[in-house]
């Protein structure tokens, strides 16, 4: 989990410094780490289920007499919380950049439309924008 947090912090640094072109390589590495974490989570869930742990309450009851495991779990929860926070900030940076790019594209489209002239009825032709919001179908 610490590796994921480090990758998210690196991603944040790239976003802050406007080095978005370097994000592709980082995304591949992040994807590998997320796959490993998913496998570890599945294994952990299976082991805990075998011990009768069904939810967070029974987890803490189970951890009560295992101080080292309890400390490790609390540290894991802390790192997960920090990773979620950094990830949310990164999403905000990406959203900001997307708005900036959309604004620049709108300006370029308007400039292109002003050079198109007029159609045979004397109207300015519509510029095809192709605009689609991220996440829309």
Protein traits:
137 residues, 0% strand
Topology at a glance:
Layout: H1 2-16, H2 23-50, H3 56-63, H4 67-114
**Helix/strand/pairing category:** mainly alpha
The fraction of residues in strands falls at under 5%
Largest sheet: none
Note the gap between the termini: 33 Å
Uncertain segments of ≥5 residues (pLDDT<50)? none
**Helix proportion:** over 70%
Give the C-alpha Rg.
24 Å
Would you count the extended β strands for me? 0
Mean pLDDT comes to 87
Order of helices and strands: HHHH
Number of helices: 4
- Globally, the shape reads elongated
Structural write-up:
The protein has 137 residues and is an all-alpha fold. It has helices at residues 2-16, 23-50, 56-63, 67-114. Helix 1 (2-16) runs antiparallel to helix 2 (23-50) and helix 1 (2-16) runs parallel beside helix 4. The protein is elongated, with a radius of gyration of 24 Å. The two termini are 33 Å apart.
Brief write-up:
The chain has helices spanning 2-16, 23-50, 56-63, 67-114.
């Amino acid at each position: 989990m610490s590796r994921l947090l480090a990758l998210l912090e690196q991603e944040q640094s790239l976003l802050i410094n406007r080095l978005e072109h370097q994000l592709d390589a980082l995304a591949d590495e992040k994807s590998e780490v997320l796959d490993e974490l998913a496998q570890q989570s599945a294994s952990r869930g299976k082991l805990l289920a075998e011990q009768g742990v069904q939810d967070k309450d029974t987890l803490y009851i189970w951890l009560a007499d295992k101080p080292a495991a309890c400390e490790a779990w609390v540290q894991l929860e802390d790192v997960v919380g920090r990773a979620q926070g950094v990830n949310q900030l990164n999403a905000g940076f990406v959203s900001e950049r997307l708005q900036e790019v959309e604004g620049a594209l709108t300006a370029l489209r308007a400039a292109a439309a002003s050079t198109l002239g007029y159609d045979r009825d004397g109207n300015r032709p519509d510029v095809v924008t192709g605009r689609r919001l991220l996440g829309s179908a």
